[in-house]
Amino acid sequence: MGKDIIILGIESSCDDTSAAVIRNGILLSNVTASQAVHESYGGVVPELASRAHQQNIVPVVDQALKRAGVGREDLSAIAFTRGPGLMGSLLVGVSFAKGMAASLGIPMIDVNHLQGHVLAHFIQTEGEEFRPPRFPFLCLLVSGGNSQIIKVNAYNDMEVIGQTIDDAAGEAIDKAAKVMGLGYPGGPIIDRLARQGNPEAYHFSKPNIPGYDYSFSGLKTSFLYNLRDWVREDPDFVEHHKEDLAASIERAVVDTLMKKLRLAARDLRIRQVAVAGGVSANTGLREAFRQHAEKYHWHIFIPKFGYTTDNAAMIAITGYFKYQDGDFCPMEMPAYSRVTIK
Is pTM beyond 0.70 here? Predict the structure, then answer.
């Protein structure tokens, strides 16, 4: 028996501080500290986020190691989110990983945050059925900042075949929640209200752009202008119709996402189809995936709710794959705020 491969994963790209430990591909712990400080601002404030990461990172890493029953001296390597994300937030995680790796004399592994979301489907826990997608598969990566269709040929070979040319799907949903005065974060509120509403109540303009790319700015504008007109006629319009409004905007976003994914799956003749990212927690999108599986005989992969949002387990599993290939990064490697999957 060879020596155990034990990876500590650190995620700090936005407003969640997370640490996870994986041994030989099996998840032992995944600890996340979320930041409530942003709620009163209606969005993430970068300066406040980086300060909160500084407060949270030591206790979060400590808890992850304790829950895993692993000592620092047992670690094989430290995997960390290098980007994309908020630069101040990333720097906290990157700096901590560098300091800890240097003090322990172990290698560092840089992870692309978006690649981590895709590989969340390979997180394995003891005693649970493990059924990862087979390569090649398509992954719809949808979050507040990204909407991409990715052809995944291998863990280290991902090709973006379609992406948003303007706003992301999650951004459109959050914006709709904001103009309706529903609070922050908007996604879960829209999801909850949409379950009680009629998705056919209102229709908004949907973009018609070629290929597999997305556009959500027109949908956002259409929602805004329609709502403005309706509120002018009835100042209490939102309060009286919020369930139907939520269901209708959700339907418009989900339909747009699935139309292009359907096209890509058909053209590439791929039936292994996954979804990842924060918006993959949305009930309407999950239901659309199940309907497509039935209708088009797709083999679908929907992540556990805990792996939809930013988490270190996805960083650790990506680090585990890279460790086996000896794909380490030098100490001077900087963080980056913007990048695609490649």
Answer: yes
